[in-house]
Design a protein that fits this description.
The complex is a heterodimer of chains A (297) and B (124). With 297 residues, chain A is an alpha+beta fold. Chain A is 60% helix and 13% strand. Chain A folds into two domains: 138 residues, Signal transduction histidine kinase, dimerisation/phosphotransfer (DHp) domain (Helix Hairpins), CATH 1.10.287; 152 residues, Histidine kinase-like ATPase, C-terminal domain (Heat Shock Protein 90, 2-Layer Sandwich). In chain A, α1 packs antiparallel against α2. Chain A is elongated. Chain B contains five helices and five strands; from the N terminus they run βαβαβαβαβα. Chain B is globular. Classes of the chains: A alpha+beta (297), B alpha/beta (124).
């Protein structure tokens, strides 16, 4: 009986043994697979890390390149201004301080040197403004501003500084409006640009109207001309950088601008928490530029 | 006769301002670098100083700073910065350091520069 029981137990032990061996083998195999998987995982992780560090490096390089570009624009623009100022200064001297009278032709040539140099200086100044705006190196110092008086100044300034015999009539629609909050220098820059454009694109004998709307929260200033107007498709491109270049209306008008003025104006107005937009009845029907600024409280 | 010091490193521009201002009847002295400028300001009396910012040896902002910390014995002439640098931070720094005015060369015609100079001289 004992032998029988022992035999029975032995068989059971053997069965269990076989079962466990099988299980152990399976586990071992699974372990091996896991090890392979872990190794693969580690490899993938390593690859990800490598890619990440490559991307970080590339990003850093791009940032450096971008800064180099900004510095390059800023430094070359600045360096260009000195010789250009000298050219303009001496052309002015030749025109105004010559010790012998100039012939009509010579006078015309010098005036053209002067005007072309001024265009170059304006372009370089615009490029510098953009580089400052795009690298956030521009400072806005807002203060309460009387729009009517600044508009009067600008209209006078633009009118007398541009060599124009267009005989344009300026109308300022005065009305009581609250002061707005803006940086006076930046606002001047915007107004000179917009009023200057209105004058540039007006026909001889035309009229430029400056007026205001207010709802008590913002003041809208509009500058309306009766000039060559803007086509519908060009309206959308006006405030883009170099918007003029792919823009038939200004290209045919040989505007002589840098194509950067309205882009700068938009950025400046937005920095002063305002908006700027343009409207026109179409080509030949004049244009109106309007910008809003918050009321000073 | 009013005496003006022009501090400008670009030879053509320096000579231009000299000629322009001499033609208007002013006595004009010139300095082409920052050290020479500081020496002239400390040793002479002027009615107006036109100061460039980017200069060899010592820049205009440092000159303003030096003059603020060590003012010359004789009463100092108003200093008007005449430069092509237009960064807001530099403009503010110059005014903080005692500059009377700030003119950007490329933004002004020679006759506008003259008008500005005359208005500063009438104040001094």
């Amino acid at each position: 009986m004992i032998i029988f029981i022992s035999l029975f137990l032995l068989i059971i032990v053997l069965i269990i043994n076989v079962f466990y061996r099988k299980r152990a083998k399976e586990l071992e195999e699974r372990n091996k697979k896991l090890e392979v998987l872990t190794a693969d995982n580690a490899k993938v992780n390593q690859e990800l890390e490598n890619t990440l560090s490559l991307l970080t490096e590339a990003n850093q390089k791009l940032k450096e390149l971008d800064k180099l570009k900004d510095d390059f624009v800023s430094i070359t623009s600045h360096e260009l201004r000195t010789p250009m100022t000298a050219i303009r200064s001496y052309a002015w001297m030749a025109l105004h301080k010559s010790d012998t009278p100039l012939s009509k032709n010579l006078e015309k040539y010098i005036i053209r040197i002067l005007l072309s140099t001024e265009r170059m200086i304006n372009l370089v100044n615009d490029m510098l403004s953009i580089s400052r705006i795009e690298t956030n190196r521009i400072e806005i110092n807002p203060e309460p501003i009387d729009l009517i008086s600044i508009c009067k100044d600008i209209a006078d300034e633009v009118y007398y500084s541009k060599a124009t015999d267009k005989n344009i009539q300026f109308v300022l629609l005065e009305q009581p409006i609250p002061k707005v909050l803006a940086d006076p220098e930046k606002l001047r820059e915007v107004l000179i640009n917009i009023v200057g454009n209105a004058l540039k694109f007006s026909h001889t004998g035309g009229k430029i109207t400056i007026g205001f709307f207010t709802d008590g929260k913002v003041v809208e200033t509009f500058v309306k001309d009766e000039g060559i107007g803007i086509s519908r498709e060009d309206l959308g491109r006006l405030f883009q950088k170099f918007g003029r270049l792919d823009n038939s209306y200004t290209a045919t008008a040989s505007s002589g601008g840098s194509g950067l003025g309205l882009y700068i104006s938009k950025k400046l107005i937005e920095l002063m928490h305002g908006r700027i937009w343009a409207s026109s009845g179409g080509e030949g029907k004049g244009a109106t530029f309007t910008f809003s600024l918050p009321v000073a409280v | 006769m009013k005496k003006i010091l022009i501090v400008e490193d670009d030879q053509f521009l320096r000579e231009f301002y000299q000629e322009l201002l001499t033609g208007e009847g002013y006595l004009v002295d010139a300095a082409e670098d920052g050290e020479m400028a500081l020496k002239k300001i400390q040793e002479n009396e002027f009615d107006l100083i036109l100061l460039d910012i980017m200069l060899p040896k010592k820049d205009g902002v440092s000159i303003l700073r030096d003059l603020k910390t060590h003012p010359p014995k004789s009463p100092q002439a108003p200093i008007v910065v005449l430069t092509n640098l237009g960064q807001d931070t530099i403009i503010k720094e110059c005014f903080d350091l005692g500059a009377e005015g700030y003119l950007i060369k490329s933004a002004l015609n020679p006759d506008q520069v003259l008008t500005e100079i005359k208005s500063y001289l009438s104040k001094s």
